[in-house]
Amino acid sequence: MAFLPLEPVGHPLSALDDPASVAARYARDEARSEALLQKRATVRAGWGPEAAARVKEKGKLPTWERIEALIDPGSGLFPVGTLVNWGRSFRGSTKLAPGAGVVTALAQVEGRKVMIIANDNTVASGSWWPLSPEKIERAQTIALRLKIPVIYLVDCSGLFLPEQALSFPGRSGAGHIFRMNSLLAANGVPQLAGVFGDCIAGGGYMPIISDRVYMTESAYMVIAGAALIRGAKALKLTSLDIGGPEVHVHQSACADVRVPDDRAALTCLRREVALLPSSAAGFYRHGASPAPPAFDPAEIAALLPDDHRHVYDARELLARLVDDSVFAEVMTERGPEMIVGVGRVNGLWCGFIANNLHPTPHPDRPAHQRAGGILYREGIAKISAFSRACNADGIPIVWLQDIAGFDIGVEAEAQGLLGYGSSLIYTNSTNTVPMFTVLLRKASGAGYYAMAGLPYEPVLQLSTPLTRLAVMEGRTLAIAAFNTRLDDNFEIASTDPEARAATQKLMDDTAARIEADMDPVGAAARMDTDEVLRLSELRSWLEVLMEAAWQTPRASRNPRIWSMHDLVVLTRVMGTAAINRTEGAVVAEEAPVDGLLPVRVGTDGTFFRRASPKDPAFVEVGAEVEAGTTLGLIEVMKTFSPVRAGVSGFVERFRHGDGEAVEAGGVVAWIRPR
């Protein structure tokens, strides 16, 4: 690719931060990961060992054992919707519904990526709970978008009737599953079904439209079971007599093949998948070989600060996601608040769009800087053009969100950000190329929408334990909600102590509730995001998603004729060496005054000498520092950027304390060079 040279990105972790900070981030990530793994284990356990034992007493395999027998050994499983209904109780049951009683997962069978949809037969005999239909339909939609086969492992006793009003009648209720069956069939997506046990009412309908249906000797499919059929008791009929394999394989032809047991059915399903076309991913590698990143993806856990207000270098993140840590960044001279470019993941091309969290120069006022993590006019136009180019070229897109929202104010409105944002939304709403969205930390306001958030139907949206998904932060929302009780400085206007206390409590309660709502586990429980990943799992998920995106032949251009090349020529990209990586402050290139050099900030904002009120100052007056040492933080629109020393020396004094406003070009400290 002569026109899009892949250039090395990234640095060793030891060059990015001090060992103590790295160790602290690893420790916090380990605690978060352990909490997430425990939740996954709870879901996988279903209703526990006793329920699994009852399944085995019937001569059947528990659902997770079926899945393990179905997939290629060692290929791994990538569940979608693990935490749906987490912590939610239902009338009519003393137990919860882990995973909404259904397992949906991307997996590999006979070398092909497939979507598995399996009723958890240890949870109320595989009943459909509230959100079970929506979870199944979400998995079907993912398969439809990627054109990958669907394998149904059916063992479903129908709706959980005490809560039928929450899962039967609505637009996305249980009946929509069968419409999705039909759409998959109409679009040529293979559907295979193994029927292993109870398949009552909707559970009986779900496998029928599949291309192949296998029934075990203990399986039956009925519109209504023996308990509801008048006279069944008198005639001593069972549901197996009414709709077992003897009926549906040999009489009704609603099923294709009768097999003795679960393992035989799973072997037959694997054999059917092997008859399908093999993956085209190897062809679309265009001769490249898969390669791991040069920097360990597990380091992402130490790269991202826990505090969503603090910045990191998104290019270092990319260096831990793309093959060989080489990346072709395009349009580097335009909209530097956004990073766009292409790289390979497991040898397959992928477009990346990421927020640059560092402050960047104002395009019209070079002496001023603008906060990172914000969508400005140039960045919006840049990612719109890149998104359209990827769609035209057939390149899947990964959106790496860490966004505080759109720019606001007089300049933003005069520049027509509403119009530019509408153009971006139109682009992302009409793209046909597979798009995947990762919510790294902040996913705020309309910026979440514009960067292909879930309402704009990416194939899949993933979150991390650091994700905060909301219109605005809790404190900011509380101010907006109670604005009529506040003065111009957003302080409580009343002079009545009781009224002030009441308003303060309402604001504090609102802020706390919003903070809780932003929790990624809560979002996953509501299906506001598809899956919560550990940071160290992100690369392996992207590998699976790229394999699935390139498995089925589709419209895509050879890299030689990508329209991406036109963007390079028209924006006169000089390569990543030209990228502006300006941070919060540098020592000005000017003559010392009384032997001191000033440290100036590059943007208007608020200066802080410590990470939080409870933390010690980064450095004290008189401390010896090296070039690059963090002296403080500059905060702009809830985003914190480091103010670093530009030379080695001794901190002579600070001009500002915590919470004081500073202007672009203003001095915050003086250093006596060594």
Unreliable segments of 5+ consecutive residues:
573-589
Please, how many helices?
Answer: 22
User: Domains counted in the coordinates: how many?
Assistant: 3
- As a percent range, the share of helical residues equals 25-40%
CATH H-level name of the largest domain... which superfamily? 2-enoyl-CoA Hydratase, Chain A, domain 1
Going by helix content, strand content and strand pairing, the class is: alpha/beta
Coarse shape: globular
How many strand segments? 30
Strand content: 15-25%
In whole angstroms, how far apart are the ends?
A: 47 Å
**CATH architecture designation of the largest domain:** Alpha-Beta Complex
- CATH class category label of the largest domain: Alpha Beta
CATH topology of the largest domain: 2-enoyl-CoA Hydratase, Chain A, domain 1
Average pLDDT rating = 87
Biggest sheet record: 9 strands, mixed
**In angstroms, what is the radius of gyration?**
28 Å
What is the secondary structure topology, with strand pairs?
Blueprint: E1 7-8, H1 19-45, H2 49-57, H3 63-70, E2 77-79, E3 102-109, E4 112-119, H4 132-146, E5 150-156, H5 175-186, E6 191-200, H6 202-205, E7 212-216, E8 220-222, H7 232-235, H8 239-243, H9 245-248, E9 257-259, H10 262-274, H11 281-284, H12 300-303, H13 314-319, E10 326-330, E11 338-345, E12 348-355, E13 360-361, E14 369-370, E15 374-375, H14 377-393, E16 397-403, E17 405-406, H15 410-414, H16 417-430, E18 435-444, H17 445-450, E19 460-463, E20 468-470, H18 474-481, H19 497-517, H20 520-525, E21 531-532, H21 538-549, H22 564-571, E22 585-587, E23 597-601, E24 605-608, E25 624-625, E26 630-636, E27 639-644, E28 649-654, E29 660-662, E30 667-673
Parallel strand pairs: 4-5, 5-6, 6-7, 6-8, 7-9, 12-16, 15-17, 16-18, 18-19, 18-20, 19-21
Antiparallel strand pairs: 1-10, 2-3, 3-4, 10-11, 11-12, 13-14, 22-23, 23-30, 24-26, 24-29, 25-28, 26-27, 28-30
Helix pairs in contact: 4-5, 14-16, 18-19
